[in-house]
Amino acid sequence: MGGSGPGYRAREHRAWKLAQQYYLIYREPSPTAQLGQRVAFVIQEYIHSGDVCPFGVSLRICGWNEGRPYLLRSDPSGAYFAEKATAVGKNYVNGKTFLKKRHNEDLGLKNATHTAILTLKESFEGQMTEDNIEIGICNEGGFRTLPSTEVKDPWLP
Description:
Blueprint (H helix, E strand, L loop, with lengths): L1 E2 L1 H22 L5 H19 L6 E9 L2 E7 L5 E3 L9 H11 L6 H15 L12 E4 L2 E4 L12
Antiparallel strand pairs: 1-2, 2-3, 3-4, 5-6
Helix pairs in contact: 1-2, 3-4
C-alpha cells in the first residue's frame, strides 16, 4: 500500500466486499486477476463519473491461481498491471530497479526473503529490525505474514 491510510482502507474494504460477493455466488475464491480488474474498475467508475480520483493510493493484490502466483498493482488512476516483483512507497523507483536486477523465477523462499530485505534496506530510514518490517508469503496454501521470529537475515541487527 502506498498513499493515505483512509484511502487504503476504503480500497481494501471494497476489495474484500468484491471477493466475498464472488465467493457467495460461486463458492470458490475469486481469481486474483479478476479481483484486481474489478477493484481497478471501481476506481475508474469514480474517475469517469466526476473526474475525481477518490482514493489516492496504490494497492498490491497477490494470490495463487491455476498453479502459479499472481501479483497485481492497482494505481490511483484505476490502471492495473501484472508484475513479478514490485515496490511501493517512498523511493519505490529505486526498489523496483533493485528488484529487476535481482529477481528470477528460481528464487527460493529464503533467497526471496533476503532479496526483499535488501530492497527495503535501500530506502529504509532508521534502523531496520525484524520487528518493524513485515514479509508476506503467498503460495498454493494461501497468504500469510511471517512472524517476526521467522524474519531472519544477516543484514538485520
